[in-house]
Amino acid sequence: MKLTLGLAQTHPKLADVPANLDHHLEIIARAQAQGVDLLIFPELSLTGYNLQDLVYEVAARPVASDPVFGPLLKASRQLDLVVGFVHEDARHRFYIASAYLSGGEVAHVHDKVYLPTYALFDEGRYFAWGDRIRAFDTRFGRMGMLICEDFWHASPPYLLWLDGADVLLLTSASPGRGLDASDRLASARWVELVNRAYASLFTSYVVHCNRVGYEDGLNFWGGSMITDPNGVVAAQGPYFEEALVVHPIDLNQLHRTRSRLPLLRDERTGLMAQELQRILTGSQNGDPGFSDSGS
Amino acid sequence: MDIAARLVIHTPLAEKILVGFIRDGVRKVGFQRAVIGLSGGIDSALSAALAARALGPENVLAVRMPYATSSPDSLSDAQAVIDALGVRSLTVEITPCARPLFAAFPEMTPLRRGNVLARLRMVVLYDQSAAFGGLVIGTSNKTETLLGYSTIYGDNAAAMQPIGDLYKTQVRQLARALELPARVIEKPPSADLWAGQTDEGEIGYTYEALDKLLYLLVDERFTPAEAEAEGFPAAMVADVWRRVRANHYKRTMPAVAKLSQRTVGHDFLYLRDWAG
User: Where residue A288 falls among pLDDT bands split at 50, 70, 90?
Assistant: First the structure.
């Protein structure tokens, strides 16, 4: 099956949701004219990234009656969409979220599970931690979504792989940092390395959409890219510039790569679960064990 | 560790990011133009060059602000930069502004007088900001910002700091790549607040040594003891780190005494971009 992807490397205006929505709708129209089947926007594409106290003013609910999601859901009758937004749940917790919209419906919402709260990041101050990592079915097969820091950790893409995702949709608002003698920033090199690593290790498509522009002193580097199940970069957007990257992928490549390299078939999930259990409890060797709860 | 190698920057990448930063930062708050105080030194020359690329030279006003004791070379070096970049320019003598204050306090030390001059230049720049309709672009580099080698509310007053994350030796790399006048790049850095003043003479260390040490302490999070183990003299490490700490007030907004539930500077948190 062939699928034409679009990566919308946008520069959102901080906290100006109406302006960002208009920009989304313009790009959706352009993508549709170019035959895009699935169009992906970056992390927090509808709101901008470093919202601080503006988080609470820009939150939305992914339902048809929402003034932001209404037009997007309507547009999703023409092509599938991934958009980034601040998700306010029924209990008024705020999440960094991505929604997959298709055929006028919300197919899946992913709330970011890893909130970087170190160095220049302060997400944990403002946002609630998502607590689900789930693959979901689309009309192009099963996919999974992760947001920025989610894929700086190896476990979320691994879980999505086991949950049946053959296409990983990664979005980010990655601040550029680490200028040295290289022609790319250290942050860009790191993300591109893991994109290729996940595609190679999971013999899957890895699709990464990263924003551009500036917020105060932060720059966002773009360079969105599609990596095929062989770990080969199939397409990449420009650095630092707004762009709509349109590129067709062939999902039959999954058949060909996994015929050659059956890593998924041979993955020993039972062994993994057994050893993870042992590590977490430390029950077999008297060690205190490794647990993120400290208990 | 080859620290000098770690301080090498890819100059086209730095230029791309910084030109974009200036263009975005100026335009998103509704401006098209910039105002820069041009001293004849490398920092302001580089900042002006980046601004000219970002906004077009016709949208950049370079202001020379000599005082009676300023070196004539500073004025001619600044003119060479103006000519090379094709930016607009203005010369405002600050001597008549400074004289009454200096006369009122004849005991003023060179340091006090230097700070007065730096702040008078700020007054001129912000007035030209209103007159020309341009944002004031700062010219502070990372070395001087960390050391606090600046006058608070004087030369460090600006709407944005494009080269504030480049050490002095990195400023030189980028200035060479942008082909600024060689004299401006090569002459000994000086605040030119009094005759014969040089940065390195006043601070007591070369920028090469300072940048390497600051890189370890700040970027790589070395402890002072670990920096000494890399070969830096203990006295230098202690002196430099003391300066960084003692001058932190120049890098932060004044503390607001918290009384209410929500207080500016504590938990009323918005980017500057909120305005734009």
Answer: low
* B11 or B275, greater pLDDT: B11
User: Averaged over B17-45, what is the pLDDT?
Assistant: 97
Share of chain A above pLDDT 90, in %: 95
Q: Using 50, 70 and 90 to split pLDDT, how confident is the model at A294? A: very low
CB atoms B17 and A15 under 8 Å = no
Which chain B residues touch A52 with a CB distance below 8 Å? 269-271
pLDDT band at A283 (very low <50, low <70, confident <90, very high): low
Q: Residue A295 has what pLDDT?
A: 43
How do strand A94-102 and strand A105-111 relate by DSSP bridges?
Answer: antiparallel
Percent of chain B topping pLDDT 90? 96
Which among B12, B17, B164 is the nearest to A176, CB-wise? B17
B138 CB within 8 Å of a chain A CB: no
Domains of chain B: 3-206 (3.40.50.620)
Beta-carbon separation of A214 and B13 below 8 A: no
SS3 B264: strand
Q: Closest Cα of chain B to A182: distance in Å?
A: 6
Verify whether the Cβ–Cβ distance B20 to A240 is below 8 Å. yes
* Second-level CATH architecture of A2-281: 4-Layer Sandwich (3.60)
* Partners of residue A57 in chain B, C-beta under 8 Å: none
Mean pLDDT, chain A, as a whole number? 96
Question: How far, in Å, CA of A268 to CA of A256, rounded?
Answer: 22
Helix or strand or coil: residue B35?
Answer: strand
The DSSP annotation for B87-127 comes to: -EEEE---HHHHHHHHHH-TT--HHHHHHHHHHHHHHHHHH
Tokens linked to A257: 């790569």
Determine the pLDDT at residue A292: 64
What value does the mean pLDDT of chain B take?
Answer: 96
Put simply, whether B266 touches A (Cβ < 8 Å) is no
